[in-house]
């Protein structure tokens, strides 16, 4: 009898989760699955292009470290086929439940802390991890310990969106930079981290090299959307960014006139709603840093 995907791929059985919350508040009880589902529906074309860059083959074993709501687990599983296996690993109970609900038969979803998950050595042909390293206290250490789970020569792919500032209001760079600064101030205060810690993720490439990975290279794509928007883009930008990320929580950090202008642009009930403007043109970068475990 064929072993189940988790066992075939040397997955851990799960632990009790992080001992202290991550720098951005992640923990077992944290739930932002809806936000992740909207992002993955929105950026699916570019994320699938990035997965193609991994050059996965049928029969391979892949780990998605910090799999969130599990969309990428399905895309990876389609590449490795039924002979292969994908393990999605995440700390959050709600994210794990969302990922399990859509996991294909050749995938297993495990709840564990990736910083001390008991992964079998050399168990995986590839590791995929997107927008997760910036949620850890010590990303360099995590890269090092995860790479021990790669077979010699195995591929390590770290993806990170928005290393470059996004363009949301093509017609108003001033308001956009005020809003970006307000978002950063909100995060700095809410999570009590300084600007350097908040942006440390920009050094992913150097961290991969420092962890001993070889042939490290980076490739970036632009996620570009213009009006009229498709439904997934409208949902992500309108609900996740405008309503949830830029809601009333930004008010303390913006001048009253800028906040009022932002409300008009972000409210679908207003004639000025940004997503219906003919000049709406959105840009976000997505960067993949790729490396290989040393061959023995
Ligand atoms: C921004 S989300 C990205 C999720 C997914 N990779 C995606 O692109 O949609 C970061 C994920 O990392 C998970 N996470 C944070 N710290 C973790 C840890 N120490 N161990 C495992 N997962 C963790 C969170 O629960 C969350 O699902």
Report on the architecture of this protein.
This protein is α/β, with parallel strands linked by helices. The chain folds into 2 domains: 195 residues, 3-Layer(aba) Sandwich (Rossmann fold), CATH 3.40.50; 77 residues, no CATH class. Helices cover 37% and strands 20% of the residues. It has a 7-stranded mixed beta sheet. Strand 4, helix 5 and strand 5 form a beta-alpha-beta unit. Helix 2 packs across helix 9. It starts with a helix and ends with a strand. The N terminus is likely disordered. It binds S-adenosylmethionine. The site of S-adenosylmethionine (SAM) has 21 residues, from helix 2. S-adenosylmethionine (SAM) binds next to helix 2.
Number of strand segments: 7
Residues in helix, %: 25-40%
Which hetero ligands occur in this complex? Answer: S-adenosylmethionine
Distance between the termini: 32 Å
Class by helix and strand content? Answer: alpha/beta
Percent of residues in β-strands: 15-25%
Shape: globular
CATH architecture label of the largest domain: 3-Layer(aba) Sandwich
């Amino acid at each position: 009898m064929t072993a189940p995907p988790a066992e075939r791929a040397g997955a851990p059985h799960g632990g009790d989760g992080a001992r202290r919350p991550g720098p951005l508040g992640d923990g077992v009880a944290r739930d932002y699955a809806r936000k992740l589902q909207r992002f993955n529906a929105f950026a699916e074309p570019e994320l699938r292009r990035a997965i193609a860059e991994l050059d996965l083959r049928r029969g391979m074993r892949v780990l998605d470290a910090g799999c969130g709501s599990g969309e990428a687990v399905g895309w990876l599983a389609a590449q490795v086929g039924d002979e292969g296996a994908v393990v999605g690993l995440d700390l959050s109970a709600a994210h794990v439940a969302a990922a399990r609900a859509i996991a294909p038969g050749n995938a297993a979803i495990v709840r564990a802390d990736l910083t001390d998950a008991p992964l079998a050595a050399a168990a995986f042909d590839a590791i995929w991890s997107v927008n997760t390293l910036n949620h850890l206290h010590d990303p360099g250490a995590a890269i090092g310990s995860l790479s021990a789970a790669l077979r010699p020569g195995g591929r390590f792919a770290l993806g990170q969106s928005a290393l470059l500032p996004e363009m949301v209001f093509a017609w108003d760079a001033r308001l956009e930079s005020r809003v970006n600064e307000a978002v950063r101030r909100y995060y700095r205060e809410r999570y009590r981290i300084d600007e350097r810690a908040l942006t440390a993720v920009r050094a992913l490439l150097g961290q991969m090299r420092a962890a001993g990975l070889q042939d490290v290279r980076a490739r970036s794509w632009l996620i570009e959307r213009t009006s009229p928007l498709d439904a997934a883009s409208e949902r992500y930008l309108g609900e996740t960014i405008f309503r949830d990320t830029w809601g009333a929580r930004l008010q303390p950090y913006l001048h009253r006139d800028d906040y009022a202008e932002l409300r008009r642009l972000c409210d679908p009930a207003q004639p000025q709603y940004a997503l219906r403007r003919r000049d709406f043109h959105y840009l976000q970068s997505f960067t993949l840093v790729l490396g290989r475990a040393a061959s023995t």
